[in-house]
Specification:
about 475 residues, about 45% strand
Length: about 475
């Protein structure tokens, strides 16, 4: 018996299966070689008094504090009872927009486009308050070097504002202040900003770098991409000096010097085919720095909540399905054995006790589901990987499959076709036996093999070995 190895390479639904491109990588995480398990979401907090739209974790003085936002309230997580305490400014907020957050030293600053920038002092606030009387009412906020930077107000949608150096309360330009603003005339509305040593301003039809140059201009604005812009504000996410975003023709990444397409001829056409454009504003994005992936959540045309993932090191993609409302990141304080009682019993807690969630201060992949914060720390979701078409166009039969799954097993199903214009139809999945053999019998000229990894601790699905025997014709 001669077995042929099919390696699980790149998932590229924009390419035909006959090219050999992987056709499905569902509820799995892209890795350098093969695909890994994608954990399910589990409840982390009790319910807030309204549905949530974002989560943000701060760290200051060795203390981790977790905040969340709804459309009209801001909340602080209480680790003693898992509650979300309303810490909004008096009167709350009137908005349907998401809050965006940025930490500036001891201060947490929040923006939603309908209230003045909000501030929480991590050293002792009991409620959010207006940052300053002169602070802008901006949609977006970040930190660039030693400045708080905000952008997109109702009266100046293409203007960037920044505070005085090391003073988040001073927003009035003067001879003694470095606070100022810059109108960007040729890129449309600002859709997002990211910070660090330099800023990246994402407009509808341009990407602009914001660099500190000192007096008298303070910041220099250079267009690094023209006619490439941000399609949706909620698609913007940053990791280190990299900013990821969705443009009107696909997904991109920028390091502040160049703008690079990352989904072209791989997943861009697929994404826009199934994206529900009417719910684009429900999109969200975050980074899982442990797995080196960027994740975007969106609603598809079948009303499903989908996640599309990109590994920026291996440059591979995958997708999944979720019940979360929005993605974000979170962190927890350290939890003692006695403190675990707050989360349930030893039998009811689905997150592994070895998970970094319990270590405290470690950022984890998270999100919100309705009025609760959730973390992606549960058991592996049921997923599968589907090969491209195998076969040389002559009649053949798939007799056997041996899945290659590290620390796990798998079931295997096959779809066989006579012609490439036929829709693949998969047979019943067959579980691999104790010798890791799945006996099959599927006849056709072209075959796709689908592998369903299983086991509570499976790590990587590398590929599958198959036995294909030529059949004579009459």
């Amino acid at each position: 018996m001669a077995l042929s190895m099919i390696e699980f390479g790149e998932w590229m639904p924009d390419q035909a299966g006959i090219t050999g491109a992987i056709q499905d990588a569902y509820n799995v995480v892209p890795q350098a070689i093969g695909y890994g398990a994608f954990p399910d979401s589990v409840d982390f907090s009790a319910s807030a008094s309204e549905n949530l739209t974002n989560v943000f974790a701060t760290k200051y003085g060795g203390t981790t504090t977790l905040f969340a936002s709804g459309t009209t309230k801001l909340f602080k997580f209480d680790s003693t009872d898992l509650g979300l305490d309303d810490v909004s400014k008096s009167g709350g907020y009137t908005t349907a927009d998401r809050f965006y957050f940025a930490q500036f030293g001891q201060k947490l600053i929040a923006a939603n486009g309908n209230a003045k920038l909000q501030v929480w002092d991590l050293g002792g606030s009991t409620a959010f308050a207006d940052l300053a009387s002169a602070a802008p009412t901006a949609k977006f906020v970040t930190v660039v070097r030693d400045f708080v930077v905000a952008a997109n107000t109702s009266s100046a949608t293409s203007t960037v504002y920044w505070s005085d150096i090391n003073d988040e309360t001073d927003w009035t330009p003067s001879n003694t202040s470095q606070s100022d603003s810059q109108f960007i005339p040729d890129g449309g509305d600002i859709r997002g900003i990211t910070g660090g040593e330099f800023g990246v301003v994402l407009l509808e039809k341009a990407i602009v770098r914001m660099s500190y140059v000192g007096s008298p201009l303070f910041f220099q604005f250079d267009t690094i991409a023209k006619n490439v812009g941000c399609y949706e504000s909620n698609s913007v996410v940053q990791h280190g000096n990299l900013t990821f975003f969705l443009s009107d023709d696909g997904f991109y990444m920028t390091d502040g010097q160049s703008v690079v397409p990352i989904g072209a001829e791989k997943i861009d056409r697929y994404f826009f085919t199934y994206l529900d454009q009417s719910k684009l504003n429900q999109m969200s994005a975050t980074v899982d720095s442990v797995r080196k992936i960027v994740l975007w959540q969106y609603t598809d045309i079948f009303a499903k909540k989908k996640i599309i993932m990109y590994n920026w090191q291996s440059k591979k993609w995958s997708e999944g399905e979720t019940t979360t409302t929005y993605l974000s990141s979170a962190a927890s304080a350290g939890t003692t054995l006695e403190g675990l009682d707050t989360y349930g019993t030893m039998d009811s807690i689905s997150t592994s006790f070895d998970d970094r969630l319990w270590a405290g201060g470690k950022f984890v992949l998270a999100g919100v589901s309705g009025a609760k914060i959730v973390t992606f720390t549960g058991s592996p979701k049921a997923g599968y990987i589907t090969s491209g078409d195998i076969g040389n166009g002559n009649q053949s039969i798939v007799m056997l499959a041996k899945p290659k799954v590290d620390t796990g097993s798998a079931s295997v199903s096959v779809a066989s076709r006579q012609l490439l214009n036929q829709v693949p139809s998969y047979g019943t999945a067959v579980s691999a036996d104790s010798e890791n053999r799945a006996s099959l019998r599927s006849s056709g000229k072209y075959h796709r093999v689908r592998v369903y990894p299983s086991g509570s601790n499976w790590k990587t699905a590398v590929g599958v070995e198959v036995d294909i025997i030529s059949q004579g014709g009459r």
